[in-house]
Amino acid sequence: MMQFVIFGAGKFGRAILEGLRNFDDVQTTLFEQNEQLINQLRPYINQAISVDLNLNLNLVRYLPDKVDAVIIDLGKNIETTLKVIHDVYNFYQNSPRIIVATDNPKLSKIYEMFGVNEVIVPNVEAANHLLPFLISRLIYFYIPIGKNFVMAEIGIPEDFHHKTFRDLNLRSNYGLNVVAIRPNLGDYELFDLDYKLDPSDHLLVVGTTENINGFLDVKKEVTGLTFKKLVNWFENMRFWKKPSESK
Q1: Can you tell me the distance from the alpha carbon of 128 to that of 116, in angstroms, rounded to the nearest whole number?
Q2: The domain 139-221 belongs to what CATH superfamily?
Q3: Residue 29 pLDDT grade (very low, low, confident, very high; cuts 50, 70, 90)
Q4: What per-residue confidence (pLDDT) applies to 144?
Q5: At what angle do helices 227-235 and 124-135 cross, to 10 degrees?
Q6: What is the CATH topology of the domain spanning 2-135?
């Protein structure tokens, strides 16, 4: 069961909640002061906590024990956003993925300094595009480089662990061009065809969205969502998701 916490029910936060309902085995917790918004979003959330985040509260008492990602959509309230980031990092031993929505792109660097993984200048479409990244554990960044092609950093599916590039023949079998390999989250490196893929390796690849999804078998990995809809999300993507270092 994947756990998601959303702070603030702005347009971006609401779109994330509505989109996550399409996935099985997902639980959501919403922190929001506006009771009317909470009531509107009841069908999309498992737990709602009505709280004024502008107050100097100890959020630890409200947070679930384990969480996969935290989405913060508190608008222009920079001080409260930073406090939430601070509390989340202090509470969880293994820091979850933290995504912040802001209307001011200039704040991106500030939030990144505090350990935020992604900063989104939000709209509803961007929220829909982000959903597969929240669910899929094998896509680390994804950049459109043309109408039909993308560059992505991806993990290694379990079925391909300890196989060589020669065995897999990714270009012929999956339509993927491997640009580089990233062993043990280090620097990108060139590779030999007889290199055996380790479960910790990442690949930098270029291909179509369908090719990447096919290699990762996203259809199997993501439950409760049609493959066609997922492909449409990827192919309409128009925002850049910054790669983040694993902690």
Answers
A1: 20
A2: Regulator of K+ conductance, C-terminal domain (3.30.70.1450)
A3: very high
A4: 67
A5: 120
A6: Rossmann fold (3.40.50)
- Determine the length of the chain: 247
Q: Which of 87-101, 102-116, 186-200 has the highest mean pLDDT?
A: 186-200
Place of tokens 């990442």: 202
Question: To which residue do tokens 């971006």 refer?
Answer: 12
HSE-up of residue 65 (Cα within 13 Å, Cβ side): 1
Report pLDDT digits (tens) over 205-232.
998 877 887 787 754 444 444 444 444 5
How far is the C-alpha of 184 from the C-alpha of 69, rounded, in Å?
23
| Encoded amino acid at 242, one letter | K
Sheet of 69-72: strands edge to edge?
Answer: 47-49, 26-31, 2-7, 69-72, 97-101, 118-120
Enumerate the domain spans of the chain.
2-135, 139-221
Q: What local confidence, expressed as pLDDT, does residue 132 receive?
A: 56
pLDDT band at 234 (very low <50, low <70, confident <90, very high): very low
Residue 110 identity: I
Give the separation between CA 120 and CA 132, rounded to whole angstroms.
15
- The first and second tokens of residue 210, run together, are 């369908």
CA gap 174, 109 in Å, rounded:
37
| Beta bridge partner(s), residue 69 | 4, 97
